[in-house]
Amino acid sequence: MLNKKSPKDMTEADWREQLTPEQYRILREKGTERSFTGPYWNTFETGTYSCTACGSKLFKSDTKFDAGCGWPSFFEPVAPDVVTEHSDTTLGMVRTEICCANCGGHLGHVFPDGPPPTGLRYCMNGTSMTFKTEK
């Protein structure tokens, strides 16, 4: 995070200054990147995925799987409290939106069609995350 303010104290002007226009559209305006176009949908290196906006750790690579949907998909976050869930009824659907618990940034949605052990598919926007490889 470039700004020295706490994520909870950031204004929309602060977020616009810190994020690229595409990051702002997705993280702050609840946008979605087109499938198979964003970063990390086909990345399978060992490492950690963190929130682009605030740097909070979100997902480990050992929970990532290829869902064939064109977005990075995971079966669980690093801890239950790093993300929040919200009802999303846009686009004529009922979905569960996933946001970063630290800064409120929109990450994507979770669906009940993932692999064991959770049966969940956290379908995330790659633009909402950064990736740091681990050796």
From TrEMBL:
Domain of life: Bacteria
Keywords on record: Metal-binding, Oxidoreductase, Zinc
Reactions listed under catalytic activity: L-methionyl-[protein] + [thioredoxin]-disulfide + H2O = L-methionyl-(R)-S-oxide-[protein] + [thioredoxin]-dithiol
EC numbers: 1.8.4.12
Domain MsrB: 12-134
Active site annotation, chain numbering: 123 (nucleophile)
Pfam family, one: SelR
Cofactor: Zn(2+)
EC category name: oxidoreductase
Cofactor mode of binding and number, as noted: Binds 1 zinc ion per subunit. The zinc ion is important for the structural integrity of the protein.
Positions annotated to bind Zn(2+): 51, 54, 100, 103
Protein family: Belongs to the MsrB Met sulfoxide reductase family.
NCBIfam families for this protein: peptide-methionine (R)-S-oxide reductase MsrB (TIGR00357)
Record's protein name: Peptide methionine sulfoxide reductase MsrB
Source organism (scientific name): Pseudovibrio japonicus
